[in-house]
Amino acid sequence: MSEEVLSQSEIDALLSAISSGEMDADELKKEEKERKVKVYDFKRALRFSKDQIRGITRIHENFARLLATFLSGQMRTYININVASVDQIPYEEFIRSVPKKTILNVFSVAPLEGRLLFEINPNIAYAMLDRVLGGAGTSLNKVDNLTEIETKIMSNIFERAMDSLREAWGSIIDIEPSLEEFEVNPQFLQLVSPNETVVVISLNTTIGEASGMINICIPHIVLEPIISKLSVHYWMQDTERKANPKDFDNISKGLKSAPVEVKAVLGESTITIEEFLNLAENDVIQLDQSIENPLKLLVNNEPKFYVQPGKSKNKMAVQILEEMSRGELEDES
Is residue 294 part of a domain? Predict the structure, then answer.
């Protein structure tokens, strides 16, 4: 519990009151010993611990970065998104805080039960729409007069943006977000009961010259099956988890089956362009390789072994004599 720090003037006033008899030190001690009672509002039940709220915050900070990257590619303009706040409040309080006319998207997130609600400020939504249609990103607020084409374009943008949410939640659970409803009036939406606790993640969003908020409303029923995975303890366990031996075996098998180019170099030589142009049949080019020295075997154009030429089953072949040492490899480079 945080303690209140008194200023020097307040300390002097307190000492003066005690010395003058206006305040009794014994009464102050008695009040200190009395049990302090904290008011608890059952309508505003806190279903998530601070640790779990921090876990949700981390996930959506990642989502904000991914969403900004996705929208920047789609809109071809400057976009900045960051988490402004993460709060747990009753659903009724969230709905009352939403403007009467706004852009609302309801997503199912299988395999989790329940649905998520994305509330996008009209300034942001229309800036997106204007950019997609080739404009400068001008924001207009005409939510009452959305055409079917505008509704479809907006829905497609928000639905494709859910790939970023899927990726952000991938460290906890694999979800499949799917757009179920597109609405402009919050009074027509009833995700959960009014007193149900929801987590509201508010994202500060800037698209070009337009700015506004994107609010994500997640009911408790959605997070309940994975609530234990939202704590720092789970994240630490996940970080310290040892590598699965099967993963190592699978990687090894994949590497072993990867094709590489192997070639033996019989020798090299240097000639002038004039000599090259005058080459004729039966001419002999002298190589710099002595028949007494082993050949070099190259793997993907990197010298790796010393070999000697020969035949195997009537085919030209080489036999590996020894591996090239590290010093020899450095001399080659």
Answer: yes
| Residue span of the structural domain in which 33 resides | 10-41
At 89, the pLDDT band (50, 70, 90 cuts) reads confident
Are residues 211 and 117 part of one domain?
Answer: yes
What pLDDT does residue 1 have? 42
Asked whether the bond before 111 is cis by omega within 30 degrees of 0, the reply is yes
- pTM for the predicted model, two decimal places: 0.57
4 within a domain of the structure (yes/no): no
Q: Is the domain of 168 the same as that of 147?
A: yes
Q: Convert the pLDDT of each residue in 226-281 to its tens digit.
A: 887 877 655 555 544 555 666 777 788 778 888 888 888 888 888 889 888 888 88
The angle at the Cα of 123, spanning 120 to 129, to the nearest 5 degrees, equals 85
Beta-strand (E) ranges in the chain?
A: 79-90, 103-110, 115-120, 176-183, 197-207, 210-219, 262-265, 295-299, 302-312, 315-323
Same domain, 145 and 232: yes
Q: How confident is the model at residue 293 (pLDDT cuts 50, 70, 90)?
A: confident
